[in-house]
Amino acid sequence: MEKSPKYNSFENLQRKERVDKIKESGLLDNKRFSLSHNPEVKKILSGLQKLIEELKDQYPEVISFGISGSMVKGYATSESDIDGFLFIDRDLAKVANPNSGDKDMQLRNKFNHILKEKILNSLSLKEEQLLHTHVLLIDKKGLKNQSEKYFEFFNIPDYLELVFLLSIGSTDIRQYRKIVLDSLENQGEKGEQKLQSLMKGLQRYERREIDEDDEPEKYKNSNLYPQTIKKAKEYFL
């Protein structure tokens, strides 16, 4: 039976040592996520959730924040990075920011600045802890189109798997996930194959430090991810 390591046992350990410790515990053998009992880490996560909720109230184009990495794998410390993506609805953002034209870069820069400034001011983190905090623009039509096309070249666009990351600050990301899953469902057996490839990509992204084997087909914990569209809808929506 897995047992969560005491959070203070991670003190003064390097990242690789903390990863090894959580792997040895078996804590993540049967679950996608494990939240730390470290009160400082819990404070960061609750503060981040509140911050995203506030951003969403101020900017309707904010969808949610998809988080990954040590913060949701049980081996984070107060010095750990925040790994994740602020999802922005591209269409809503362009309506709200008409002067941005068609330049995604301007929108990404704007929200990247807003997000990081809020985190630094509200959570008292260091800038280097936000090196892996990004802004991702998505739109419903684009998600549908990519869901239909990506498998033709056996290439999954990164953002298709990223919309299935653990979401905090809002559940609105579910409507975007539904577009992807509905599109796959309409493609019959090919859609089921795409779903399995998508889940392998998600697993590889989320567990890149936990699962040692680089080949997703051989990952031991693929049972943590739904393997049919029906189960994916039950799980992610």
Write up what this structure looks like.
The chain is α+β, with helices and mostly antiparallel strands. The chain has one domain. It is built from nine helices and four strands; from the N terminus they run ααββααβααβααα. Strands 3-2-1-4 form a four-stranded mixed β-sheet. The relative contact order is 0.13.
Write the layout of secondary structure elements.
Elements: H1 15-25, H2 39-58, E1 62-68, E2 83-89, H3 90-96, H4 104-123, E3 133-138, H5 140-149, H6 158-162, E4 166-168, H7 173-185, H8 188-206, H9 229-236
Parallel strand pairs: 2-3
Antiparallel strand pairs: 1-2, 1-4
Helix pairs in contact: 2-4, 5-7, 7-8, 7-9
Mean pLDDT level: 89
Number of strands: 4
**DSSP summary: helix tally:** 9
Structural class: alpha+beta
Distance between the termini: 30 Å
Short description:
This protein is an alpha+beta fold and 237 residues long. It has nine helices and four strands; from the N terminus they run H-H-E-E-H-H-E-H-H-E-H-H-H. It has a four-stranded mixed beta sheet.
List keywords for this structure.
9 helices; alpha+beta; 4 strands; single chain; 4-stranded mixed sheet; 237 residues
